[in-house]
Amino acid sequence: MARPRKQEKKQILAAAWELFRVQGYEASSIKHIERATGQKAGSLYNDFGSKQGLMAQAVEAYIVDVVRPRIEKHLLDPDPLNGIRQLFLSTFNEQAPEIRGCLLTNTATEFANTKGEVSAAVTRGFGELRAGFEKACARAQEMGMATKVLPPQRAADFLLLGYQGILVLARANHSSDDLCNSVEVILQSLQKEPAV
């Protein structure tokens, strides 16, 4: 059987990552994957090697199609602290409660303590988010908007941790008000103290 063309493969991977994001890897049977992608099991195994191979490529596609555009949209904002705020807020303001969630976050918890291509892809995605946070924090410090008590690298680690926490709480249907308050606490920890 011929390999899928680039556009068809992109559509297959997008359908797969959407299924895995909402339902999880283990809960997604081959029948679910066939229905979501419109492909037969034989074609999927031929093209991706295994269910886990499909998952790894789906995570990589998610990084390209979702994570990078979100970093570019929010973390390159001329006001870096506002960009960070908007990225955090978008995790629950732009998604209906029944579909909230991030494939990286969900997969990280499902594949905790495992090694392999799926975990490696998740680690790469987190690395891209962390790098985006680090650059935004460095710009905020250069602009005098953020405290220099936390070096940009440590601030980025803190933001990645907070971001993942917000995603988990959003998925668990915490109220938007509570999530907004948490985002503000996270941002206050970065802001420069006003001069007295």
TrEMBL record:
> Carries keyword Membrane?
no
Q: Which residues form a coiled coil?
A: none
Cite the entry's keywords alphabetically: DNA-binding, Transcription, Transcription regulation
Q: What start and end residues bound the annotated signal peptide?
A: none
Decide whether keyword Calcium is in the record. Answer: no
Write down the species.
hydrothermal vent metagenome
Using the record's annotation, list all stretches that form the HTH tetR-type domain.
6-66
Protein name per its UniProtKB record: HTH tetR-type domain-containing protein
| Pfam families found in the cross-reference section | TetR_C_13 (PF16925), TetR_N (PF00440)
